[in-house]
């Protein structure tokens, strides 16, 4: 089976969980031996692993020729000629205003530049070019940035479209959605033949807020890969007289960093032999630094900044507790990675990963009293700490991308056969 996949991130250049999930899914599919994945992204760094074919969309020359609707009509189940031409005309409305380089290619900055909306539109145009030149059986588009590309590829090829919802704007904005983003998300869902959601929590959001047919929505939980040898070899550096409690992730509204700070202040009112670490970056960082100062705990609180690659695992291994207090977390791979490193985890009940994790402590993100109690208990009760460490490692070892890949393959087969 041949898969045409659209994504926005891929390791080793990681902006967030989307890159990790894209890697895990493609790797899990590759292990089956008979799946060829072509992964299209705006601007690869050139250091990606070679187990799949990656297309650099910045190097695809723009070429347009009309596709005869009658030629693809038999494969356009559920769509009319008007659907096709309306979408095509919308995508190409501003085509003459788009700049190309000397090779006739649209250049992408990669990542999340200020002109993100234009990059998304350009990406969808190149997707149509790629879809006309590649041989594939199914289209798989990751997150809202690539939904227009997936739709365009479907329109010109007639092949089934699967979209992968890693998050919705309801998660990122605490309900104060951006109408433009919501429109792109809903259009992708409306045109998809299958909607994979990273959790049942996300699936319910898709059904209830985007008004999708439950029969085409599937919960597809994320997973983790076994630690590499160089990560396993990391030796923790811990002070036996102090415990370290870590928050690692984007410091944004969605992740609930203020609840972590408030819980830390409560814990430090009971004991002084615990240090707190907020690793990451984001638009709330300055506010969190001020809040820490206001609570009078700056001497026990650390902001090491954004962590990359091996630094992430060093952070986990040097921690005694990991906390993810997300307000709305579609899945959340970080606790699984922490558990792999022997670090007990506390997660919010509003996290999708809680659907498959039992050997963690779950609290409501807003319940800072319960969060503080859980942190204090793990830090002061060695038996509890060791139980969560040992049993958590056993649990997470069973959550593999190979299993996810097999589930996705079954969905592919159903769509292609249908």
Please explain how this structure is put together:
The protein has 418 residues and is α/β, with parallel strands linked by helices. The chain has 16 helices and 13 strands. The strands form two sheets. The chain has a seven-stranded parallel beta sheet with strand order 3-2-1-4-5-6-7, with helices on both faces. It has a six-stranded parallel beta sheet with strand order 10-9-8-11-12-13, with helices on both faces. The longest helix has 18 residues, at 116-133. The two termini are 15 Å apart. Mean pLDDT is 91; it is low at 91-98.
Give a summary of the structure in a few sentences.
The protein is α/β, with parallel strands linked by helices.
> In order across it, which strands form the biggest sheet?
3-2-1-4-5-6-7
Query: How many strand units?
Result: 13
Helix coverage percent: 40-55%
| Low-pLDDT ranges | 91-98
SSE series: EHEEHHHEHEHHEHEHEHEHEHEHEEHHH
Chain-wise SSE layout:
Blueprint: E1 2-6, H1 17-30, E2 36-41, E3 53-56, H2 69-72, H3 81-92, H4 116-133, E4 138-142, H5 147-157, E5 161-165, H6 169-173, H7 179-191, E6 194-197, H8 200-209, E7 217-219, H9 229-232, E8 243-248, H10 257-268, E9 274-279, H11 285-294, E10 301-305, H12 310-317, E11 321-324, H13 334-340, E12 345-348, E13 361-363, H14 368-380, H15 382-397, H16 401-417
Parallel strand pairs: 1-2, 1-4, 2-3, 4-5, 5-6, 6-7, 8-9, 8-11, 9-10, 11-12, 12-13
Helix pairs in contact: 1-16, 4-5, 5-7, 10-14, 13-15, 14-15
């Amino acid at each position: 089976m041949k898969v045409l996949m659209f994504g926005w991130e891929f390791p080793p250049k990681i902006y967030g969980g989307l890159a990790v999930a894209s890697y895990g899914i493609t790797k899990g599919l590759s292990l089956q031996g008979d799946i060829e994945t072509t992964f299209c992204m705006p601007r690869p760094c050139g250091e990606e692993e070679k187990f799949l074919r990656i297309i650099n969309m910045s190097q695809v020359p723009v070429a347009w020729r009309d596709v005869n609707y009658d030629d693809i009509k038999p494969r356009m189940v559920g769509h009319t000629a008007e659907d096709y031409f309306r979408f095509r005309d919308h995508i190409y409305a501003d085509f003459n205003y788009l700049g190309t380089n000397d090779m006739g290619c649209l250049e992408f900055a990669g990542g999340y530049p200020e002109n993100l909306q234009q990059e998304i539109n350009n990406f969808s145009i190149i997707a149509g070019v790629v879809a006309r030149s590649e041989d594939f059986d199914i289209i798989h588009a990751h997150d809202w940035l690539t939904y227009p590309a997936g739709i365009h590829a479907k329109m010109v090829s007639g092949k089934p479209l699967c979209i992968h919802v890693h998050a919705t704007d309801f998660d990122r904005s605490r309900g104060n959605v951006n109408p433009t983003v919501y429109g792109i998300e809903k259009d992708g869902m409306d045109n998809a033949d299958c909607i994979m959601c990273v959790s049942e929590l996300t699936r319910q959001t898709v059904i209830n807020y985007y008004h999708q047919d439950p029969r085409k929505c599937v919960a597809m939980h994320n997973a983790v890969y076994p630690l590499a040898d160089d990560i396993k070899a990391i030796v923790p550096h811990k002070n036996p007289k102090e415990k370290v409690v870590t928050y690692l992730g984007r410091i944004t509204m969605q992740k609930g960093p203020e609840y972590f700070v408030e819980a830390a202040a409560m814990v430090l009112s009971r004991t002084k032999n615990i240090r707190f670490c907020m690793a990451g970056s984001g638009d709330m960082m300055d506010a969190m630094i001020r809040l820490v100062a206001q609570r009078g705990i700056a001497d026990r609180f650390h902001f090491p900044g954004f962590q990359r690659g091996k630094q992430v695992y060093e952070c986990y291994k040097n921690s005694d507790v990991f906390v993810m207090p997300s307000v709305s977390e579609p899945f959340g791979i970080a606790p699984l990675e922490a558990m792999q490193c022997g670090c007990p985890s506390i997660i919010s009940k509003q996290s999708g990963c809680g659907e498959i994790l039992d050997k963690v402590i779950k609290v409501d993100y807003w319940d800072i009293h319960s969060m503080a109690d859980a942190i204090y208990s793990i830090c002061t009760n060695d038996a509890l700490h060791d139980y969560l460490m040992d049993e958590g490692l056993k649990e997470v070892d069973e959550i593999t991308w190979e299993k996810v890949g097999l589930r996705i393959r079954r969905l592919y087969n159903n769509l292609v056969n249908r």
